[in-house]
Structures are given as structure tokens and as C-alpha cells.
Amino acid sequence: MVKLCVFDLDGTLVNTLHDITDSLNFALAACGFPALTESRVAAIVGHSVNFMCEHALPPEHKDQADRVLALYTARYKEHSLDRSHAYDGMIEAVERIKAAGVTVAIASNKPHADTVKVAGTLYPKNLFSLVLGRMDKFAIKPAPDVLRFIMDFFKVTPEESVYVGDSDVDVQFAHNAGMRCVSVNWGFRSVDEILAAGGTCITGDPKQVPELVLQDPGKIGVC
């Protein structure tokens, strides 16, 4: 029986790509570098903001990453909700999972304060029992530290837990923690990338997410 469902934020619950791209391009322009397309930003989001800012720069200018990061962080703090929105159907999907008696939580590589702000604004208050973004005390995903912390916090096992995400990193994250992963294809990574990471359960329909999450993990054929 599934007792815990943990969600990724960016690209899974919320489309934040426009605001992330705008803030990153603001920082790049301030440092004299060209703007990136949303598709390029999507490819470097999901590891950490440090990773994103470093990989937004030409290889010969990696030494400017800290400056870009500082400018991005300040800009995004004020503009994280300009155009970001919950994906259609995902509020209802999370509510259905919670109504089935499953604890729902968020674990993201997005900085913790930004994670709490975005999730708390775009999703109903008190829907999630725990919201955790990037914090220094946890290694970034795909290291399983934060998922293990959440499972310990709610006293559940990996077999009783599911992670829902949109990327190859999310698949690795879930598998490293020993739990199933349900992948969604409307986020920031391609289906091919998810499959290459070992993803086996992929949907493009938010209405199907509760069904996939709530499957009995003991049944043959469960993804």
C-alpha cells in the first residue's frame, strides 16, 4: 500500500520555465553574455541553481558563475511568480492522492525559500505535509538524502513510497532511494532522456497520475 507520494516542483507541479529563463537572461545580460532560449534553459534546470548558472556560460567564462548566480538569485526572488503557474490538472491530481489517505510532500533542488514560496502560492494551503527545497544539510538530487529524510520523518519504507518527477534526475533520485518513480512528460526533459535514465512509468495525462501512484506495488506489472 502506498503511504507517501513525494513530488518534484519545477516541470512537474509548476511551469516555472518562463520566470527562470527571464531571471537568468537578466543576470547574463548584466554580465555581458547573450540570452539563452527557453529550451536551452530547460536542459540545464533541475540539478541546482549553481549548476544552471555555470552551464549558462561559455566554457571560457565559468569564472563568472558566482556573479551570474548572485544576480539571478536576487532577480528571481522578486519575479518567481510573474508567469509561473500550476500545470492544468495537477492540483486536482495531488488532491485525489491525498484524499486516498496518502501523505503528499515536495522535494526539489530549487532553493528552499523559492520552493516554499512558489508551492505555497500556486497550490492550496496545507495540501502538502512537507515542502523541502535545496538546503545545505542535504546533498542535491539525485543523491537520495532528502528522500530518505522524508521517509524517516513519516515512518514509511521505500516500498510504500512513490516519487513523481519530470526528468532523468528525478528517475535516478527515486531509484537511489529505492522507491518507484512516476514520470510526467510535460516538463523540462524529453521522454528519451527519462527512458535513458531507467524510467519505465511515463504519462502525459495529469488525470492518470493518481492511478499510477496508487497502484498496489505488490502487483505484477506495476510500473
Description:
It contains ten helices and eight strands. It has 223 residues and is an alpha/beta fold. It has two domains: 141 residues, Rossmann fold; 63 residues, DNA polymerase, domain 1. A six-stranded parallel beta sheet has the order 5-4-1-6-7-8, sandwiched between helices. Strand 6, helix 8 and strand 7 form a beta-alpha-beta unit. Helix 3 crosses helix 4. It is globular, with a radius of gyration of 17 Å. The two termini are 14 Å apart. The model has no long low-confidence stretch (mean pLDDT 95).
Give the structure's gist in a few sentences.
With 223 residues, the protein is of the alpha/beta class. It contains 10 helices and 8 strands. The chain has 2 domains: 4-15 and 85-213, Rossmann fold, CATH 3.40.50.1000; 17-79, DNA polymerase, domain 1 (Orthogonal Bundle), CATH 1.10.150.
